Amino acid sequence: MTNMQSFPHEMLREIYEQPAALLRTLAMYLDGDHLREDVADRLAGWANPAGEVLIAASGSSRHAGLAAEILLEDLCGLAVDVEYASEYSCRGGQEDKGIRHPSLLVLSQSGETSDTLAALREANRRGQHSLAITNAKASTMARRADVSMPLGAGVEKAVPATKSFTCQLAVLYLLSLYEAQRMGRMESAELAANIARLQAVPGSIEAQLDGWRIQMAALAHKYNSASTFLFLGRGIHYAIVREGALKLKEASYVHAEGYPVGELKHGPNALVSDTVPLVVIATVDRALKASVLRYKKTLELLRDMKTQGAKVIAIANTGDTQVAGLVADFVAVQPINEYLLPIAEVVPLQLFAYFMALEHGVNVDRPRNLSKAVVETPKGDE
Ligand code: F6R
User: Fold this and answer.
1) Ligand 1 mean position to 47 CA, how many Å?
2) Does ligand 1 have an atom closer than 6 angstroms to the CB of 134?
3) CB of 374 sitting under 6 A from ligand 1
């Protein structure tokens, strides 16, 4: 029984709290097997008539935004851009040029990150519609956006974000269902099937947590002398390799970068060696043609990496013998829908970062130079 366990660190506790946090979050947006109508009413009119959305966020929240770009484009046909909030809020130069401004979606666990707040302030000034997804429903962002979609992750104490990230992914998936429904892009049977798939995710994670914990502890020990890791993924999984790499950096102080799989050979491959292993997401949704295509291309890369002698840790579907035969280490994830896989596959990467932190003697709940919310001292305009 995982909920009876005691945890040496908040980060590990929060990783284990994810199934419950997800269930709480889903309950806020679902009425049994249906999307809640009051939420649909609140969301009406959020997306601009041209269906253009700009996502502004920082750090892990921006990685959730990268996943949202694919969800909202693939499932709803919206046109989405993702910006670093710190860049967007300093862009300027768009005044008086007749530019049609997109709707703004801000993502933030704290709802107080100064750069993301600045992006929201700018959007409000221009009259753009705004939506805030935060883990603090009374936060400044939640109050200042036209619409707020809070998370039910509960208080997150460890600096490395874990349960707030997976809850962001769940709410973003729900947002894409709401939008797809509103735009008539998803038939009711498909909507019902997607809701049922989403509802199954917390239980699936719960069932895999103990196994991942044991395996990732062993892998962290095996790879503890690596100086750099390259994380690779395609499509929506690219968002997760960016997150896996960030988590490893901030928790264990080990250098890591996340790249799209196809970019490896355009430079980073020069780094791959005995001391620079690869972490490759090679999961697949066999019901989706595009997912199978991405998977096949990833298999090609894994074959090339085997020939090259690279050390690869693969995250792949349970029972995938093709991937298992090509890599040094194989981490299994139960197969689920392509657009929901990120919520599950990030969890072993969170655990890898956690155990690497222990291997390196880092105070994982309070890594150096970082704080839970990057805010500025108020200057009178907030
Ligand atoms: C990483 C992490 C940070 C935050 C970033 C933005 O684990 O927590 O990268 O995601 O500082 O903070 P929020 O989400 O509060 O806007």
Assistant:
1) 25
2) no
3) yes
Gap from CA of 23 to ligand 1 centroid (Å):
22
Atom of ligand 1 nearest to the CA of 162: 7
pLDDT given at position 1: 42
Q: Which atom of ligand 1 is nearest the CA belonging to 165?
A: 10
Residue 379 Cα to chain centre, angstroms: 32
165 to each of 11, 170, 178, how far by Cα in Å? 13, 9, 20
What does the pLDDT read at residue 9? 96
Q: Is any atom of ligand 1 closer than 6 Å to the C-beta of 161?
A: yes
Residues 6+ apart with CB under 8 A from 202: 18, 19, 20, 22, 23, 26
Query: Which ligand 1 atom lies nearest to the CA of residue 59?
Result: 9
Q: What is the pLDDT of residues 143-196, one digit of tens each?
A: 999 999 999 999 999 999 999 999 999 999 999 999 999 999 999 999 999 999
When pLDDT is averaged across residues 304-312 and rounded to a whole number, the result is: 96
Question: Who's near 183: CB < 8 A, 6+ residues apart?
Answer: 51, 76, 77
Residue 94: per-residue pLDDT: 61
